[in-house]
Amino acid sequence: MRLPNLFQTLIVIQEGRAMYQWGKTQRGSIALNQPRRRTAARHFASTLERQHGGDWYFAPTSTAQSHDDTKPTTWKAAACAFEHCCALSDQGQVFTWGSNSFGQLGHSEKTDVDVPTCISEAAFGKQGVTNVSSSGWHCAAVSEDGRLWTWGRGTFGQLGHHDQYDKSAPTVLPPHVFGRLRVVQASCGCIHTCCVTLDGSLWSWGGGHYGQLGLKDKEDRVTPTKLSRHAFHNLAIVVACCGHSYTTAITEKGTLYTWGDGAKGALGHLGPRPRKNKND
């Protein structure tokens, strides 16, 4: 089971075979096999409430497998964004559905989709995908060969392609951007993105208004920029995650760092300045 970065929709994967969603569906962001018959998942509430005049689902609802019902999908991971969702199969395929106003579904067009639809393997250079993330109106995926692909809204440079244009299909970031190091994990925030490379370096780019890039300023970046290892006491980063306007990272020693927008205690610190949290 994986609970990803969320806005108004939540996804749970049960033993790889079933994927459940609930929350607010906007423009198809909750995919159902039978749109007119919504059944609550077993082990949760026995009835599915629906708000009058709205599209809220108050109990987990089984997600449609894919357009091709003859090939059941085993889900490995999933992520929710503002108006769309994505999921990763155990075969390294990426499925997306929901709103496509910025090309965030990655199907080379801007038509909304209400059923999980597979992005062509050719879109990732015929490589399987090992990691996928989605938030705001963009997505990021890491392919088996350690390359990073991004697509969707690019207004703040969050796609990392040295511009602020939207991309409606997965677009690879040149390997030299990361010093030809393999990318092992990526995460999307609302308007920023970060990734971790094989050497334990952390990179960030996109909107920086709240300091969420961790680069000691509030400037936007249109290309990946490496954070100083000194900021983490010279320790390697093993995983990083972007929130709406903040970022978290865990080092090889298990130390947790947070920075960016600390509204409502999101950073986990008593004071206003970014600090580190130790797990002991």
Question: Top keywords for this entry?
Answer:
single chain; 280 residues; mainly beta; four-stranded antiparallel sheet; disordered N terminus
Q: How would you concisely characterize the structure shown here?
A:
This protein has 280 residues and is mainly beta.
Itemize the secondary structure elements and their pairings.
Layout: E1 9-14, E2 18-24, E3 56-62, E4 75-80, E5 84-89, E6 94-98, E7 113-118, E8 129-135, E9 138-143, E10 148-152, E11 167-172, E12 183-188, E13 192-197, E14 202-206, E15 221-226, E16 237-242, E17 246-251, E18 256-260, E19 276-277
Antiparallel strand pairs: 1-2, 2-3, 4-5, 5-6, 6-7, 8-9, 9-10, 10-11, 12-13, 13-14, 14-15, 16-17, 17-18, 18-19
Overview of the structural elements:
The structure is a single chain. With 280 residues, this protein is mainly beta. Helices cover 0% and strands 39% of the residues. It is built from no helices and 19 strands. The chain has strands at 9-14, 18-24, 56-62, 75-80, 84-89, 94-98, 113-118, 129-135, 138-143, 148-152, 167-172, 183-188, 192-197, 202-206, 221-226, 237-242, 246-251, 256-260, 276-277. The strands form 5 sheets. The chain has a 4-stranded antiparallel β-sheet with strand order 4-5-6-7, with no helix packed on it. Residues 1-7 and 32-54 have low confidence and may be disordered.
